[in-house]
From TrEMBL:
Annotated protein name in UniProt: Helix-turn-helix domain-containing protein
SUPFAM superfamilies: GAF domain-like, Winged helix' DNA-binding domain
Domain of life: Bacteria
Keywords assigned: DNA-binding, Transcription, Transcription regulation
Originating organism: Pseudonocardia ailaonensis
Residue ranges annotated for the HTH iclR-type domain, each copy included: 3-64
Gene3D superfamilies assigned: 3.30.450.40, Winged helix-like DNA-binding domain superfamily/Winged helix DNA-binding domain (1.10.10.10)
InterPro entries documented for this protein: GAF-like_dom_sf, HTH_MetabolicPath_Reg, Tscrpt_reg_IclR_C, Tscrpt_reg_IclR_N, WH-like_DNA-bd_sf, WH_DNA-bd_sf
Domain IclR-ED: 65-243
Source organism phylogeny: Bacteria, Bacillati, Actinomycetota, Actinomycetes, Pseudonocardiales
Amino acid sequence: MTEGGHIRALRILETLAGLQQPAPLMTIAEHAGLPKTKAYRVLRDLQDNGYVDHIGRSGYRVGARAIALASLVGPRPALVQRALPVLVRLAIDAGETASLHLRSGAHRVLVLRADPPGSTHRIAAIGERSPLTSGCGGTAILAYLPTPEVDIVLGRESRVVRLDLPDHLAQIRRQGYATSQSANHPELNGIAAPLLDPDSGHALGSIAIAGAPSRLPDPGRLARPLLAACAELGPRLATVLGPSSSVRLESLDVTIQNVLQSQA
């Protein structure tokens, strides 16, 4: 597979992960922005290597090897060890749910959450995937990506994004955080700030605080503790997910074998 083919394979796999599964070939091709014939060839390669399963006329779904890869590079113990204490302290101080979001292409995924003591409200589920252009958790990341990557995201989402989004991203960079009202969830206000790689200054993810408007009419009042939490966690997160990560990864093949055996 060529270098361009590897990028297409990653794009197809990421697209499939964001669709209701099994997903038809045409749906995958359209969402990935590829011709049907090219998408089919990539899916066949992924299928032959265990990253995708073909479910007859129903289409395709993420395969065992991709699931193993996700478990390997997802919310690993090293990440949880660094992030959870910060989120718990922030949730207690704010009296609202604090959540950690990581970038996934043009989207962000909620990977960890801490609720305040006594809370019975579950604002968002672990694994929730939303566009970077929607909600404070996404725009806080988007505002701190390299300009070419921002242009790609805005171009891909041009049919659905608000026209003032570039100005909004500039405002986020000036104040250091983003706010939103009912962007991804009805009747929820939120504030989020980026988790920056100290070497590049680019966002690896974000921390968001969200609550009902009656309890959080002015999310900006939580900016100070939120920014402090992000300044503390950003460098820690970079040691796990940044380009200069010093965390050793376990063998992927062991994880794959465990998944395959469990499905046998």
